[in-house]
Predict the structure.
Amino acid sequence: MPRITIDDQQIEVAAGSMVMEAAHAAGIYIPHFCYHKKLSIAASCRMCLVEVEKAPKPLPACATPVTDGMVVRTHSEKAVQAQKGVMEFLLINHPLDCPICDQGGECQLQDIAVGYGGVVSRYAEPKRVVKEKDLGPLIATDMTRCIHCSRCVRFGQEIAGIMELGMPGRGEHTEVMPFLENHVASELSGNVIELCPVGALTSKPFRFGARAWELSRRQSVSPHDGLGSNLALHVKDKRVLRATVVENEAVNECWLADRDRFSYQALNGADRLTQPSVKDGGRWLEVDWQKAMAQAAGALKVILAAHGGDAIGFIASPHQTVEELYLFQKLARALGSESVDTRLSRADFGGQQSGIEWLGMPVAELSTLDRVLLVGASVRQEQPLIAQRLRQAVKRGGQLNLVHGADADLLGRVANKLIVRPSALVNALAQVAKAIAEAGRDVGAVAAAIADVGVSDAARNMAASLLSGDKKAVLLGALAQQHPAASELHALAQAIAQASGATLGFLIDSANAVGAGVVGCRPHQGGLNAAALFAAPKKAYVILGAEPELEAADTAAARQALASAELVIVLSAFKTAATNYAQVMLPVAAFAETAGSFVSMEGRLQSFRAVVPPQGEARPAWKVLRVLANQLGLAGFAQDDVGQVLAEALPEGEAGVRAKLNNGITGVTVSHLTALSGIERLGETPIYQLDAYTRRAPALLATADGLGGQTAAAHGDLIARLGLVVDKPVKIKQGGGETVMRLTRDDRLPDNVVRVPGNLAAASPLGPRYGDIGLEKM
Amino acid sequence: MSVPYTGPKVCLWTLDHPNPASLDTYIANGGYSALRKILAEKTPAAEIIEQVKLSALRGRGGAGFPTGLKWSFMPRNYEGDKYIVCNSDEGEPGTFKDRDIIEFNPHQLIEGMAIAGYTLGAKAGYNYIHGEIFALYESWEKALDEARAAGYLGKNICGSGWDFDLHAHHGYGAYICGEETALLESIEGKKGQPRFKPPFPASFGLFGKPTTINNTETLASIPWIMRHGGQAFLDLGKPNNGGTKIFSVSGHVNRPGNFEIPLGTPFADLLAMAGGVRDGHTLKAVIPGGSSAPVLPADIMLGCTLDFDSVAKAGSMLGSGAVIVMDETVCMVKALERLSYFYYEESCGQCTPCREGTGWMYRVVHRIERGEGRPEDLDLLMSVGNNIAGRTICALGEAAVGPVQSFIKHFRQEFEYHIEHKRCMVGA
Amino acid sequence: MTLSAQSLAQIDKEVAKYPADQKQSAVMAALRIAQVEKGWLSPETVEFVARYLGMPAIAAYEIATFYNMYELEPTGRHKITVCTNLPCQLQGAGTVADYLKQKLGIGFGETTADGRFTLKEGECMGSCGAGPLCLHNNHTMHTHLSPETVDKLLDELK
């Protein structure tokens, strides 16, 4: 390793590193704007010029490789003179509007100008003015402030995987802009707000919400997908006003998905449930907690007395905390019910699982995989930052193979694709397994069932891909997990993984699905799973955070079951459609308003504190559950704080979590090898309909993804064949239900497939997410 | 040294023939013989580089870097593709020599690039031609077709089993693409923004592959060197400054044009070849190496010989050999204003000092020219120049500063007069 | 929006000059070819070229705006670009430019009312020895200009 001297400190640094990195290692700060450790080197702002002995000119620290014996001075007269010169150039055309700039107080240019800027400007010529750009609902612009560091452009090209912003023009006329008047549509776009070192790109939903110094910044964990991105919630007057990233190299690196960043809007919406309410003679009455709890406990006791605990179904959202879910299942079991579940979107529970499904490896390893087989995953929608990791793997030479029910632009090279209608997914995956078997590998128990499957070239190429390379994974996405034959896909994926030496992993779509499983929020002996709970209605339901009328695998069945129940008690942070079927609504704290923990898809246990108090009369759900249990006279609900609940739920902490993770499955017979013949539904969850928060965040819903997620879509050929009209409403029928949605064209869908999203109010009257469906012209 | 020069010419000799650009003219006068010989004898690359080093051929694009040394930087045992690139993006004000090589001796450039390609192990070569001379882009493509048809390009060249092809790529209006790494970016279909170095093109060049970039005149000199030997080329010029060189003379002379003469020729002789200063006028100043080179007053310039070392000693640069001649009628403020506008207009905008500084300098010079100058402006210009020079990614920063600082240095009283009297002292 | 078969064939020929995974290298030529056919580069044309070469539209737009021989607004039938840089200026480009402005009744960057001429100020065209000079529609150079030769040139351009 080269030894260098930097500001009189002697240090050893890794060969090939730059002076900037060496300085960082030595704890020395070199001012910079264009340099960013995760982006390619631009060396264009020139702010990081330093003096290097024997070099005739100052050199940019970001782009100068260290050499053995190098002597660097970052604050010598020569270096500072160069840095001050650059700072003067940066400021001559930068507006002096810090008092009205949202970046004020957290602006790199402002900060560095304090150290390197002059007091009086020598620039007496007119300043540049740049025309404003509209980048859409998330990013506000003030392009006159742009200092051309190009971070936002490089982010799009290198991290988001899509070049939406460029720098047309030349010289001082260069401007950062999208093509024409395009909005920025990347699901990672909000990161440019934090990358921008000045106030050129700022948060539109936050705009002028507060000055940086008025906000207290409190760490939290994103409640959306199973990644568990670390973020900071910025609070003023007990309200969350924005979210920014907290760097965690092992989890989200230094990025957030847009929904991690903007979903806080839902916390401040008008449809928060803030008062306990009970239904009285068909009308909702707002009551105090005492009355509400008495009514809830009383009603439950009536059911218990008449039908026993087994008659009560317990459904919770997998976005609730470990502590809440632990107490929830404890309450269920204390009341004598084994019917407790969080897997609302799941249709098939066949086979015996060896443990709790998880990613099967650390998240960070995804970036270094040589071979990946993605099965039924729209990964950009499901886990935007996992998609980013996979793009990094592809950039390093990894091969990505996709077996899916719709083509998806992963913004990176896909080595092989097998795009089939959803009902043909089992057959498609069986082809890959068979191709692997034909290559002489043992695919175990599934071998006999797939013996007659015809193997396509794509499947053969995938098999060849998976049989080469070193670090490999077979990853099952949301479609694979929600599929009517999910257990068969699971068994086939397991066979492929074992035969090719790959890791089998599940891409988990909700923040605490793994935690839910680990703390036993699952039906055990004699209990019903989420699908069965609605298929064979219970007398009563207790619902925590979930919106089954949107989130269930078969929303029509869920609606019917809930409507016909004698009692439905809902614990929610929002005024949901439960007002139509519930008898008691108990307001509970939303994320950010309660302390708790999530277990991420890699089995990482992350605890967080409340950053704001619950709104109105809402209380943390764990407390509500505890009090309800007390009212019911149940023992074991005396926890004083959330730490006690966690200690009880996971006495061995993360180690205890890990012991329960296992992706194995047995007892599955692969039989769904023939596809449907008619038109079928593809009911994946749109990126911003995932959970209670995203679907209530106006800015997210106004993006292209947000709007697109509220439409039905089909291939142009199918639209033509059915005589339908694009962009017009279309009648959609499934089972006994029907709805009307706007129809859009998406030629990436296979023939005879209609995308009618799940988790969507408009699709709520319909039946299963996957299966036969009909379209009719209006 | 006699006027005019009648000795051997390396590049523009075809002009003495009726059809200078034709393949027949070229072949009839020994053209492609060097390539044929090298391929037939399988001359080792090291031997060719040795001859180029011996010739003391220095880059004719402006920087004057020894060509043989540059060639020796290319990795020998690299497994993948390598490229040779010719820089014909001639847009430095005052320079118009490469265009004449392409127009009047296209095959010598093709042969030179082929020899370079062979020596450096390149898979293909690209010639980046200035967009504004589009007719020559088309004519050079025709010459490529001729060469291919005659077996000097393409598969199995001259029956040697060696494959190599050349292509033309045109610019479309950006001076900066004359900077070799901006040129590479431009060939890749990007904005012509220079890359920071390291890595250098010899390790990370076109499409990320090892690449050597040479000027048109440099590459066109290669066949002559291989035919006559490096020593003969060196002997045409003077030590460390081998060969003849094309000087482009423009401005206030009676016969502007290109003159291929040995390096080391006195400036006064070149001026005489160009017909002298326009009739009835006297020499005031000369920019000896293209607009980026510092201006020199007449008396200093008349004491110079035209080679890299002599002009450098006088405080300027031989550069591309573009000699811009100005007589006593020239207002130096106005002349500088036009050059400053050029660099401001052509700055790629990538790095801060150049993007912001060139505009600043132009606006101040423009103000002075308009009669709105301030006494502190000259010191400000010198200081802004100091903050640009040596702080930028590429040499355009220095190029923009050179004129500003040299004009003020040598003609300060003219600038002061402009500021004080709000008008020009020339003709006052 | 599409381009003629002839233009596409020309673009394909340019694409063939570069390695198969470097189609973007042909963007400068492709935009030039498109501009020759359409007269200028509308956003639709830029987008078409980008898609044809498999590159982001904004990347093609960067090219169209960086290199100053591309026209992003419609021009007159005849675009005259006069070099006014120092060598040409010393050789009389100022006089020629003033003459053109006066004769056409327009300034630099303007188009005559009849849509016949657009006048532009250009930078060094690498042919200073033959200055004053101009480019006609980017690809044809006229050298040694004087008021007399300008008259002749304008008469020829209908």
Notes: The mean pLDDT of chain B is 95. The first strand of chain B starts at residue 83 and ends at 88.
